[in-house]
Write a structure and sequence with these properties.
The protein is mainly beta and about 650 residues long. The chain contains three helices and 46 strands.
């Protein structure tokens, strides 16, 4: 047999073994802890310098610098990566001031911690934009997992986040060059091409290089197709004449020949800039009758008038002036589908201008370019008879049917239906038929309930008021929005046309509750019941009907009359609604909340439920019984004596009832 001491040692050893077997795994491998964190999104723009009047693409980097706020002691890398990753990232830029955003909402994808994704945003800067710094608001939305519990994915929680960010852009103060006049040699000649330019900007241009590059084979500039000139310093408002070398082909005719004009320069801070534009170079007409202007009221597929204005640049009077026109191209015909037309001017004096007007029609597929027309001008002078001058002119189809949408006003508000209205005008030059305008919303949070409106026929200069019903979602943000109005119409020759979209901005106002609730009389005495009154106001711009109010109270308050009904509530109308509220005898003297909500029918006939509105109910000291609210000590001590004679009286009153 073992000794008692040996037995004790064996018992201790057994206890240690049991302890080790149970608790060793816990100390050796601690349980996984909760992991919490979130992405941290920021934006940076690369080259953020813009110029007034330009349309460019701004490169924006979307950066995620995620943060783990609590992690496991073992370093659960997968969980930490998940809580800091932004998933399904979208970027939605908005216009600001003179800068219009042309890009729609862009999907970026998943963005792990420490990564960046580039996004291109197209911007247009107004011609008259003031130089300075602007911030472009950008809404970034994404999903992420802020919490992963000890059980991993079975205990995680996903959320959607919308954050407001912005990027800074700078509209530079720079030179701006306007063309005052361009002269070129006559067709078939070589000589000087002179440009009269004005620096119409707000900054001086240093070391300016003026380049003109021909965009047509009828105009030759320099030996390589372009010609350059140098201007040392060009002050704001200063006029300069730049002379280049060039030639015009014999068959070019008297029409505007396209060329690309660029001016490269540096400002006073040595920042380089380039100003680019497309100009028309019209050759010298030659002869005594110069072509001053060529105009057309006929667009592609349309009939109209073609007007050629001649100016007498000679010194002798001309008699019996006739003009014969011959179209070189099938896309332009005169009169009854003829390629020729004639007109008689009569006499014209030196310095006088006369306009030749003939009927013309362009083909359906005619493009907006000059269509060549040979012109033979016959005339007599005091010394000669039957003199002839020949020119070629370019006739461009009229594609400038213009519409405007002005006096725009709206009642747009977050989480509310509203109206957008304005005045639509056919500026001309022609009357149009079957006009249909379509309003395109800025994003998915703004819905135009009936986007198309048929306006019928409109004469040139005629205006009509147009309105659209617009619904703004509760997820939308307040602020300016860019809308687009598209116009489809038919010409008088039944040809279908679509005008350039009209872009305009309109603000969405912040969310406003359907009802306003004001406490008019909400005093209740402890231990008593009182009538409280709430003033309910319809804050929407539409009438609501069948309004059912429900009051909710919690201890120490209660209500025995918690419902009310309003048949109709017009915009801005206020109605007082009574309820009955009780306060327990133990209620303290302070304000307690009650809440009220409303079920109602909106103007569209939909039954809706409002949010809850909380109002205070003030509990006051009880008015007291026979001895007031607080009984004196003498009265309390005397109370048993009072109860003896009052008991038979109470019994008799009960029997009488």
């Amino acid at each position: 047999m073992s000794s008692p001491e040996a037995s004790r040692i064996a018992a201790v050893a057994l206890s240690i073994a049991l302890f080790t077997s149970v608790f060793a795994p816990i100390f050796a491998a601690p349980a996984a802890a909760n992991v919490t964190g979130e992405p941290n999104i920021s934006l940076t723009a690369g080259d953020n310098r813009l110029s007034a009047g330009e349309t460019t693409q701004l490169q924006v980097s979307v950066i995620n610098r995620g943060e783990v706020t609590h992690g496991s002691s073992q370093g659960n890398v997968d969980a930490e990566r998940r809580v800091t990753t932004a998933r399904g990232v979208t970027v939605n830029p908005e216009s600001e001031g003179p800068i219009t955003v042309r890009s729609a909402e862009t999907a970026v994808g998943n963005l792990p911690d420490g990564n960046a994704i580039p996004v291109g945003i197209q911007l247009s800067v107004d011609e008259n934009a003031d130089p300075g710094t602007y911030r472009i608001p950008i809404e970034v939305s994404y999903e992420y997992t802020p919490f992963i519990g000890e059980r991993g994915q079975n205990s995680q929680r996903d959320e959607t986040e919308i954050v407001q960010r912005s990027v800074k852009v700078v509209v530079d103060e720079e030179a701006d060059f306007e063309v005052r006049d361009i002269s070129a040699p006559a067709p078939g000649d070589t000589g000087a091409v002179e440009l009269e330019l004005t620096n119409a900007g707000e900054a001086a241009a240093n070391d300016a290089v003026v380049s003109l590059e021909s965009l047509t084979g009828d105009l030759q500039l320099g030996a390589t197709g372009s010609s350059e000139a140098y201007v040392d310093r060009w002050e704001p408002g200063e006029n300069r004449t730049v002379t280049l070398s060039g030639s015009v082909t014999d068959g070019a005719g008297i029409r505007a020949l396209p060329a690309s004009l660029s001016v490269e320069y540096t400002d006073d801070n040595d920042v380089p800039f380039t100003s680019r534009s497309t100009v028309g170079v019209t050759p010298d007409t030659g002869g005594v009758l110069a072509v001053a202007e060529v105009d057309s009221t006929a667009g592609p597929g349309e009939q109209g008038e073609i007007g050629i204005t001649l100016e007498h640049t000679g010194e002798e009077s001309l008699e019996d002036v006739t003009v014969d026109l011959t179209s070189r191209e099938a896309g332009l015909t005169f009169g009854a589908a003829s390629n020729s037309a004639s007109a008689y001017i009569g006499s014209i004096e030196p310095g006088e201008q006369r306009t030749v007007t003939v009927g013309g029609q362009f083909a359906e597929n005619a493009r907006t370019r000059g269509y060549a027309v040979d012109m033979a001008i016959g005339y007599d002078t005091d010394e000669t008879t039957g003199a002839t001058q020949r020119n070629t002119v370019g006739v461009v189809p009229d594609d400038d049917q213009t519409f405007t949408f002005e006096n725009v006003d709206s009642s747009l508000r977050v989480s509310q239906d509203g109206t957008l209205r304005g005045t639509f005008t056919n500026v001309g030059p022609n009357a149009v038929e079957n006009v249909v305008v379509t309003l395109d919303p800025p994003n998915q949070n703004v819905e135009v309930l009936e986007p198309q409106v048929a306006l019928g026929d409109l004469d040139s200069g005629e205006s009509v008021d147009v309105s659209f019903d617009v619904e703004v979602a509760s997820a939308a943000r307040a602020g300016p929005r860019q809308f687009s109005l598209r116009t489809n119409y038919e010409t008088l020759d039944d040809d279908e046309r679509q005008a350039d979209p009209i872009q305009f901005r309109q603000s969405v106002e912040p969310r406003r509750d359907v009802f306003g609730v004001e406490a008019r009389n909400t005093n209740v005495s402890a231990g008593e019941e009182s009538r409280i009154v709430l003033a309910v106001t319809n804050q929407r711009n539409e009438t609501v009907t069948d309004v059912s109010a429900k009051l909710f109270a919690s201890s120490p308050l209660s209500t025995s009359d918690d419902e009310a009904y309003i048949a109709e509530l017009e915009p801005g109308e206020t109605v007082e609604v009574p309820f009955r509220v009780s306060a327990s005898g133990s209620a303290m003297q302070k304000d307690y909340p009650v809440s009220v909500d409303f079920q109602y029918v909106d103007a569209a006939g939909e039954t809706r439920l409002s949010e809850s509105y909380r109002v205070p109910v003030s509990v006051q000291e009880s008015g007291g019984g026979l001895f007031g609210s607080v009984a004196p000590a003498s009265a309390v001590g005397f109370a048993p004596l009072l109860l003896v004679p009052l008991a038979p009286l109470a019994l008799r009153l009960r029997r009488r009832r």
